[in-house]
Amino acid sequence: MTPVGMYCAARVPSTPRRNNVAAFFFGLAFAACVYRSSECGTKAQVIHWFRERLLPVKLNQKHDGDGCTSPTPRIATFGEVFDGASIELIRDPATERPCLLLWDGAMETVGSVVEFKGRFYVPAPMDPSLLRELTLPTHCRPHGSTRELLADIRKLIGEFVALPDKFVSLAARLVLVSWLIEAVGTSPGLTVTGPDVLRGNQLLSLLHCLCRHPIRMTGVTPAQLCSLPTAMGFTLLISQSTISDKLQALLDDASKRDQKIPHKGGLLDLFGCQVLHSETVLESARSSFRFLQIPMLPGSQNLPSLDLTTRRRIAADFQPRLLGFRRANLYKAQNGQFDTSGFIFPLRQLVQSLATATPDDADLQAEVVDLLHEEDTDVRSAKWIDLSTTVLEAVLVACHQGIGTVIYVGELAAIAQEIGTRRGQDTEVDPGAFGKRLKLLGFATEPRDAKGFRLRLTEEVYDRARQLADDFGVPQLKAHGVDKE
Fold it and tell me: What is the DSSP string of 173-188?
């Protein structure tokens, strides 16, 4: 023991409070010895060691009524959102280690331990390989206006990927949504498919520089996806030739903000934006309505190089601005609403998510209507031969012929069969399947008699069929005597 350490040990009586003082001076003496040794680095390294090892211990002590001390538990986190305050995971540019940035509404505090309202927070642990691949901001700075930031992102994507304007705008909005992910109920995604693999990889590399907590992966299985840390808010960038049905189902489950996945005795939160670069188009009906399709067709334009130095420069420029955008707009996004009633029902969540990307600019939100007009038209066209559509149309036709009457389910199925035949559909409508879909849509049939189940055509049945037809985007409502108000 050094003379200073021996002196401290001999002169300070052994009480809980004074033991802390002795430990403090002993650590100071030890740091001095380390500094004087031949293996010592710089003075700054010693100071850093002292702060990391001793000061947090002192800060995390609290005294009870008897003068004894007990440790205050630290809360491991990847980020927190409070009322008017937040904690964000950032990277220390000097050490490349993760640290936390606390914003209390007026000022910032950065450190490996931050305190807010009596609670101490530390970065949650993660595998070193995951940390190396994760893009994090090193600080926060003002983003300018949302319109300027969106324009800068669009310019960047247009320069390095050379996509048509529509797809550039959609990809840029996905970047902004990833920074406001807590404000959406269902996370949007991109599917990147097509023969131009180089451009597809270039887009994912660029998104890895821009999105919040992005991580690039390949060869992903459901089990491997579930090995990721929970509640990180990852933007998943997955590149592989095929996406299995099981992985696709897991990604669908993870896309719901309030749904957690049971895993190893706990609950796993993988909610975040998703980008899939694959040779195959997603087949799941659930997935198709939340994913934006970006085709990668061969072009003659040479793309600029997106090497490591360029990617680091882009990340260093945009990540702090995007963090500033998040700080300025998250509350507005969480409390904002956008009228999606003009879109067919399955697309409304996607429309709402993309409008959330620009919560402080109504004109930019309105642009989403034009951006997704083609997708809305395609879904409406597909609805022409959907069973739910023909069920509702058959009920509307029957109601138009006579409110207050009773019609058998088999007769309704025959009406649906005629509607499908006129639209070129060869599939026969099975009365049993028709009846099950009728009940699924909320129509209660009367007890079965010799001819089968019956539906009484009341005003309530008519109103429900009309409302559902509007929500489902049933075509030509006026042809069935229904006026869409």
Answer: HHHHHHHTGGG-SB--
